Amino acid sequence: MINLNHQLDLIRQSPTVAMADRVNSLKAQGEKIIGLQTGDPDFPTHPGIQNVAMKALRGGWTHYGPSRGFLDVRQAVAAKLDRDNGVTYDPESEILMTHGGIHAYYIAMQSLINPGDDVLIPDPSYATHVNMAIMLRANAIRVPSLPENGFLPSIDAWERALTPNTRVMVINYPSNPTGVYPSYDYLKMLQDFASANHLWVVSDEVYENLYYEHHPICASKFFGAKDRTILIHSLSKTYAMTGWRVGYLAATVSVIENALKAGQNSITCVAPFIQKAAAFALGDPEIQQYAALMRENYLRRRDRILQVSTEYQSSKVAITPPMGAFYFFLDMRALKMSSIEICERILNDAKVGLVPGAAFGQHGEGFVRMTTAASDDEVEAGFRKIIEWAETH
Ligand SMILES: Cc1ncc(COP(=O)(O)O)c(C=O)c1O
To answer: How is domain 47-283 classified at the CATH fold level?
Structure first.
């Protein structure tokens, strides 16, 4: 037997990445595939951000920087959190720059978790939330987040999942894969639940700028919530900067001090020229307009899909209109096939790449995730192909 870390045997390769690899290899063989599997904006990073990065590169911002991030960058983060989210964080001590949202989540969880702790995570949800908990030798307890309940776990479901070892709850609104985000009252209820049970709330808000209804409410914006809530943020989705790998954590000082150790000993720092570009992206008014323009594009595609869905009146593909993010979580349970089989067959027959709902948890079974982060034409043509395929099965 090879002597490796067996904890990683408990984790499967990311089905999103696996599907992207398959779509790319089919495309390389000359197949015409509509790839609606990846959550990566189809827009370029704004040239203004690129210019700042290039100037910083040429200006010598090419050495190690402080592990927390430069103070001016953290000040830009604090100003953004105040402006967009209505929450106050001290740039000196309550903010830490990270390699994207995924790394922010990783070091947040490293800062909180001891082996054997229980962590509550809705099902379905972004697979990394569970995988990271497992990597840290915690137990991920899934909280059913059912379509019948608008993809939000009922308070009873949270209560039932609770154990004496539960120390953390993870939430992600707007949600990948469902696009749902809750009302003020629901979030208040979650914070009351966390407070009553002495839980940390890790809130992944990387889709906060992609909303089609009221502005999503920041999880720490409740009385007393800041002391138990860790905010996970990223520039990836809001500013079409997925490849830049930059995000940040906002939390109370004790968590940031732990996260600083975790960050220092894993990445040292976020590349200084990237940090400078991030500060510009977060603060510049023209860039905020660009972000709003991208949101309008996702909204137009979402509305188009809703119209097409009404046009077909399909009994095989049901839709809960997403409130945010850039995904549709298509309910294809009527086909009575596994979500993997549905995705395989749609890829083979209709030439559309999707992600099986089971990748997000057992309650995602029978669903598939389709992104709207592709051109208007691709999104509409892909969706039509999915429905037309489903109607013949
Ligand atoms: C819910 C959620 N959190 C975090 C991430 C990671 O984003 P980043 O590129 O900032 O690491 C993603 C990416 O798809 C996501 O869907």
So the answer is: Aspartate Aminotransferase; domain 2 (3.40.640)
